[in-house]
Amino acid sequence: MEMFRFENINYLYAWILIPVFFIFFWVMILRRKRNIRQLGDVKLIQALMPNRSNFKLWVKFILLSLAFFFLILGLANPQIGSKLEEVERKGVDLVIALDVSNSMLAEDIKPNRLKRAKRAISQLIDKLEGDRIGIVVFAGKAYMQLPITSDYSAAKLFLSTIDTDVVPTQGTSIGQAIELSLTAFGDNKHEKAIVIITDGEDHDDNPITATENAVEQGIKVYTIGIGLPEGAPIPEFKNGQQMGYKKDISGKTVITKLDELTLQKIATAGNGIYVRANNTSAGLNQVFEEISKMEKQRYETKMFSDYEDRFQYFLALALFLLVLELLIFERKSRFAGKIKLFEK
């Protein structure tokens, strides 16, 4: 069994430029054709330039694009870990329950509530040292997104896939999210905590009862209110394009507001704290400071070690393609010019 990862995965975002390169190249081809038409008769001009090869122009462009692709892949540095060994770590078990209802698309917290929460969770994962983390997503129902793990790379990968479409049933079932979070913890003596990130609105169950059940099992419950009390409209999208804002039956725009009272009650019942997120802070740092005060327990886990770099293969391939591109001229070769398949 081998483990694959990228050492610098953020470099891969540069691949977005490849379609842009194709657009610019296509525009350049069209402009060249237009300029030729402006000079005079197209067939006559082509006859005056018999050695110019559009095919080679495309080949050179494709080689450059492939070289760029492999260059970025090399910079990201693919690594393979083939050695799995037992290591001893020390930390707490933490489950984050993230609200993914449509109200989390409101933009009173920039860029919107859900994106800001995901960004804060990603930053929290970067700070973890030995702690194990799990992720639960919920709206009208709750689902286990990531079982509790010490693999932070996997945690960030699963986090990146979360959006409002992962839970089809709308609502905000905080109680069900807490109950599902309880099942994520193993039967061990680790200190445990649940962090609920939600706007708290439209809850359709009794979260206090679920919180009290968690406390009985020695688990603390923290809440983070994501949103502002004055609220904001809920954007509606179709095929990735915003089509306006959600409206009620009477045609009035729905305003989603942060329900702080419920979240404060949950935190009080859960022996935790409540923090309100705003546009300067998502609140997770303050909660993490509280969690870091909990007694950390030792545990053993299996981790990949001795990761081997593979960047050199992709950089070498990129260099080869660049050299190959330099050796290809736009002019037709003498051999190709002699081939006239359709002439008698």
The beta-strand count equals 13
What's the SSE pattern? EHHHEEHEEHHEHEEEEEHEHEHH
Structural class call reads alpha/beta
CA radius of gyration: 28 Å
Shape: flat
Architecture overview:
It is a single chain. By secondary structure, the protein is an alpha/beta fold. The longest helix has 23 residues. It folds into two domains: 104 residues, no CATH class; 214 residues, Rossmann fold. Helix 4 runs antiparallel to helix 5. The strands form four sheets. It has a six-stranded mixed β-sheet with strand order 5-4-3-6-7-12, with helices on both faces. Strands 1-2-13 form a three-stranded antiparallel β-sheet. Strands 8-11 form a two-stranded antiparallel ribbon. The chain is built from eleven helices and 13 strands.
Keywords:
single chain, 344 residues, alpha/beta, Rossmann fold, 2 domains, six-stranded mixed sheet, three-stranded antiparallel sheet, 13 strands, disordered C terminus
Compile the SSE list and pairings.
Blueprint lengths: L2 E4 L10 H23 L2 H7 L5 H23 L1 E14 L1 E7 L13 H15 L4 E7 L3 E8 L2 H9 L13 H11 L7 E7 L8 H10 L2 E7 L6 E2 L1 E4 L2 E5 L9 E2 L3 H10 L4 E3 L7 H9 L4 E13 L1 H17 L6 H5 L6
Parallel strand pairs: 3-4, 3-6, 6-7, 7-12
Antiparallel strand pairs: 1-2, 2-13, 4-5, 8-11, 9-10
Helix pairs in contact: 3-10, 4-5, 6-7, 7-8
